[in-house]
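Notes continue from the previous slide.

Worked example: a multi-chain complex. Inputs as given:
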Amino acid sequence: MSLLEVNNLDVRFALRRGDVQALRDVCFSLDRGERLGIVGESGAGKSVAAFSLLNLIARPGYIAGGSIRFDGQELIGMRDRALRRIRGHRISLIFQDPMMTLNPVLTIGEQMVECLKAHRRISTRDARAISLRRLEQVQIPSPSARLDQYPHELSGGMRQRVIIAIALLLDPDIIIADEPTTALDVTIQAEIMALLLELCEEHNVGLVLITHDLGVVSQVTQRMLVMYAGRVIEQGPTREIINDPQHPYTQGLINALPQMATPGSRLNQIPGSMPSLDNLPSGCAFHPRCGFVTRADGSTRQACVDRVPGFVTSGNCQAACHMVAEMIEHERLPAEEQV
Amino acid sequence: MTIPTSPLERSPTTSRRERLRDSYLLYSFLRDPIAQLSLLVFIVLVAAAVLAPWLAPMNPYDLAQIDILASELPPLWIDGSDPAYLMGTDAQGRDLLSTILYGARVSLIIGFGAVAMQAALGVCFGLLAGYLGGRVDAFLMRLADIQLSFSTLMVAIVVGALFKAIFGGATYSAYAVPLLVLIIGLAEWPQYARTVRASVLAEKGKEYVDAARVMGLSSRRIMFRHILPNTLSPIFVISTVQVANAIISEAALSFLGLGMPETQPSLGSLIKSGFDYIQSGSWWITLIPGLVLVVLVLVINLLGDWLRDVLNPRLYKG
């Protein structure tokens, strides 16, 4: 059994005009020490997925169904007191913007000590010693001085290092990193990613990396999920998905990378934009933007418009697409006839 | 292991004194003569009030020291004065300077006590209402609305009159100070609750609060340790205004005969006791305590103005 198993997760936001489903049937798992990437456009539900893992969806959002099993315990419906023992201790979260995540009126040391004391019976002196060791591990210059500094005295890159140090403070099993480098300078981004990867490997920490940067995902993660409009549409080993994407949306994302365009020509893009979650197209949510639908034959085109596609397995990957299903069917039929 | 730091970087160990020296608060204070003067006057008044038992020529609470024959003597600079009484005497023959010093003490105790009470109640209710939201918020804020719809004076008159009627005048005199602290404190807590709630609502949406929840901290720790320190600036600013208001409320109550009894006068009851003699020419009994009250309230308000300007992040260009 995996360390973290998410099944049929269904998260909704109760709005005045009715519920909006932010996540539908999201399933994935994470083994100890494994690194998983979640990619998708803005609004695909990546961050909602991350927050619901800690059962931290704020009103009006709520978890309507599904299960999240962590180390054998069901997190959905767990009492707040028990959840607090998991948050920050077994699963920690790194936010997008290091400028905002540290409390401006407390020193770095105070915030780290507080986190330690919330989970362990420990003296302030010992807590400071542990904090100092973590700051050294994230390679901050003059770590002992940082303990008594306020967040505004640190640069963005240093703050993100502090946040990584806080995330590692209690030796968690899983770190969820929600776009940890988007708010940083490009030159710092690579450093921070390399540090995060190194620390995860060193401490055998599982990583859920949420990003829209396919380059980072391909370098850091072993498996990946592609999300679109609240659903997982493709999942599998990162290398296979990057090299041979099955779902038209994933293909579109990879084709949209600047490296994929021929020099001198316009960059590739996926036409249209992500549909609003409260007004999803029928059938496959991607079908209005999908370049293959118009070229597909009648019955498949009808399926795309009418029915939500289920997962079909191709190699080690799974994709939720009627086209892929049909192609696999075609490949299999001649093979069977030969036998 | 030490990594050399750039010379521009602050030295690793900065003491609190160094932080204060480098702070914007001190910088702005040293460039604001009105704030400096206000603080000076305020400190002198508070020191005089605190040290009243040692500074005052006589003890106005001690009936043995009072000489009724020396009543209504004018201040030193007017003909017919007695050099023993710098600011003259009141109708009972109490030295006015001593009475003012003791009276300022009572006024300040009630002012600060009432504000401490308001702040304690208001900050707790405001934090709960803002952080928990929903029904708790609705309930506490409606309670605040109801409280605000009674004026301080009305609450004080009703409570004070009831207390006097039930326990008698002697008991009332003995408990006048804590009772006034309680009344003024209860009447004005919504000011704090509303201000704190508004700041909490603004702070609650910030990511550091989410980060604190992600760390697994309890709601109480998040409220008091993470959110409260971030709402302190407005609390400081309204505190100055509220101290001044509480002193005025107490003076007004005493002037109406519902506050401090004349045997242990505050500035307000002194003004009142002199008011009856103003027609007979003994203006100083009312005017001098009145001036002290005005100056006290004015310097507190001026300090509050300065503090508001310094702590306002929109005006702050650090």
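Summary box: The CA atoms of residues 90 and 311 of chain B lie 44 Å apart. Residues 1-12 of chain B have pLDDT under 50 and may be disordered.
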